Structures are given as structure tokens and as C-alpha cells.
Amino acid sequence: MTQKNNPIREKILKGLKISHKKLIKTKKERNFDLVISDNGKVVRIPAKDLKCV
Question: What is the C-alpha to C-alpha distance for residues 19 and 21, in angstroms, rounded to an integer?
């Protein structure tokens, strides 16, 4: 099996997408900032700027 057609990989990616959508939805509902690291710098993204893909 290659990486591209691995069913376990596909399930993990699907779960990550669902988790990402829930995170964005929660941050928007509670009007919290999303805090991430960008090359070692802490970056805060306001809830109003978040888009769910």
C-alpha cells in the first residue's frame, strides 16, 4: 500500500478536517481568538477573521 491509497490515512485526514471545523465553529460562537505558532512566534487570530473551509 502506498501513502495515497491507505484507508487509515484517509480516515485520519477526515477526522482532522472535522476537528478543524468544530474548533473554528467553537471559537466563533464564543468570540475567542485562535492562538497558533508561526515559525516560533505566537499569533492570535480574531474569531471574526476565521473561515471554515
Answer: 5
